[in-house]
UniProtKB/TrEMBL annotation:
GO terms for molecular function: RNA endonuclease activity producing 5'-phosphomonoesters, hydrolytic mechanism. This is Mitochondrial cardiolipin hydrolase. Residues 291-327 have a biased composition (Acidic residues). Belongs to the phospholipase D family. MitoPLD/Zucchini subfamily. Residues 177-327 are annotated as: Disordered. Keywords: Hydrolase, Lipid degradation, Lipid metabolism.
């Protein structure tokens, strides 16, 4: 929060075409004390270039670094501007180009010391000032300067110096021309052979012998690999010592026979037979008669007992009479 309060941000928008705003941009550049880092697609505005060269002469400590698209070196007028910057700013100015023929280096911004940046659609050309509809923001902000400067350093690390890139481009052009020449020669040879075949063809022979096309020479067969040395035979393992025979087990004594079990008595099941009703009545009658007979027997026993008592009484009387007589 304290850093944000200390970072006093000011923004001034510039719109083009406008000669007046071109002068504002030149005055903005004049604030540089240590370095100016420019990252633009096209750089041909002579008024801006003149101001930069003047600043380098007045301040030998000032360093100017420029990144632009490599297509600019293929246009003589644009390459002349870049050459002028390098020649008059020896030891102070450096220029790098992107390495791609497919993509563009299409950034448009500059960084001045640690305080100022300018960014927008504005290309550093004469037409951007006089005819094109462009915009440019002049910004004072340490935080934004840091972010843009990190992007510039990343590109500077990846890209190549202009002279090295030009040499590389020239070599690429030479290689391309050589490939085209070889292709044209091959096509010419094929056309000449075809014309020769047509000229030598027999009109009476509907199937002329066609010249076999040249075939690529076959590669020489590879030399056979020397046979591998046979591995020495493995030493046979010593035979295992036979195991000592086990002692025979002693026979177990025969078991004593168990005594035979006594046979269980056979239980006879007596089935109760249901008696008929009449038989049951006769049995009841027999029982009643038995009871009566028993009562009669009992009466006879009682009578006998009475008789026996009477006999005892008579015997006692007899014995008493004998005693009296003896006296």
């Amino acid at each position: 929060m304290e850093e944000e309060k200390l970072d006093q941000v000011t923004i001034e928008p510039l719109f083009f075409p406008s000669k007046e705003n071109e002068q504002k941009l030149i005055q903005f550049l004049s604030q540089a004390k240590r370095y100016i880092r420019i990252c633009v697609y096209t750089f041909t505005n002579k008024n801006i270039v003149g101001k930069m060269l003047q600043m380098m002469k007045e301040n030998p400590e000032l360093k100017i670094q420029v990144i632009t698209d490599d297509a600019q070196t293929k246009i003589p007028s644009q390459k002349a501007i870049l050459d002028q910057i390098l020649e008059e700013g020896k030891g102070q100015a450096e220029i790098k180009l992107d390495n791609s023929t497919v993509s563009l280096m299409h950034n448009k911004y500059l960084v001045i010391d640690t305080d100022y940046i300018a960014t927008g659609s504005f290309n550093w050309t004469k037409s951007a000032v006089t005819t094109n509809k462009e915009n440019l923001l002049l910004i004072k902000s340490k935080k934004l300067v840091q972010q843009f400067d990190e992007n510039f350093q990343s590109l500077w690390k990846d890209f190549k110096f202009m002279n090295d890139r030009i040499i590389e481009q020239q070599q690429q052009e030479i290689d391309k021309a050589e490939r085209q020449r070889l292709k044209a020669e091959k096509q010419a040879e094929q056309a000449a052979k075809k014309a020769e075949q047509e000229a030598n063809a027999d009109p009476n022979n509907p199937n002329p012998i066609q010249v076999e096309p040249e075939t690529k020479p076959k590669k020489a067969p590879k030399e056979p690999k020397p046979p591998k040395e046979p591995k020495p035979p493995k030493e046979p393992k010593p035979p295992k010592e036979p195991k000592a025979p086990r002692a025979p087990k002693e026979p177990k004594p025969p078991k004593e026979p168990k005594p035979p079990k006594e046979p269980k008595p056979i239980k006879q099941k007596i089935k109760k037979v249901a008696q008929p009703k009449k038989k049951k009545e006769s049995q009841e009658n027999e029982k009643l008669s038995d009871d009566v007979e028993q009562l009669d027997v009992q009466d006879d026993i009682e009578d006998e007992e009475d008789d026996f008592v009477d006999e005892e009484d008579s015997m006692e009387d007899f014995l008493a009479d004998d005693d009296s007589e003896c006296d």
